Amino acid sequence: MASIGILSQGMPTLRAARDADSDGIIALIAACYEEYPPNVLDVDLEEPELRTPATSFDAFWVLEKDQQIVGCIALGVLESGKRIELKKCYVSNRLRGGGWGRRLIETVEAWAAERAIPEVELWSDTRMTLAHKVYAKLGYIPSGHTRDLHDISETTEFHFLKHLAL
Known about the structure:
Blueprint: E1 13-16, H1 22-34, H2 43-46, H3 53-56, E2 59-65, E3 68-78, E4 83-91, H4 100-114, E5 119-125, H5 129-137, E6 141-148, E7 156-163
Parallel strand pairs: 4-5
Antiparallel strand pairs: 1-2, 2-3, 3-4, 5-7, 6-7
């Protein structure tokens, strides 16, 4: 019987990221960027923190399957602990539609709730419309704010905000 890919095998494992996961995280994010031309990931120029994910963010998790990073999410604490920013939420295209993005986002929200942090915000590339639908289903509200990153991909981002029920 032929393999039908990653979904036919065991479930991914969610765990805290290590700095040694850098190459796998970078490969995942680069693959996701390629789906949205003209996005391109230049780690050394624009996102060097991906070289040390565990130590560059307040928290960072990965989904690992068969020793491959297939999803990730991170956060940064803002406003003296009154808000967190959800960052680096990516899921391999082979896993999309299976609820893995939701599970990653719920991990960030649980982290915030455990620390009585009432708000989660995020910024998302305007091109990533599928992600916007996931955020909306999970209660994230567009604030109406945008920002231009002035990066090599000429990225404009939408801002989303969610108030957690603590």
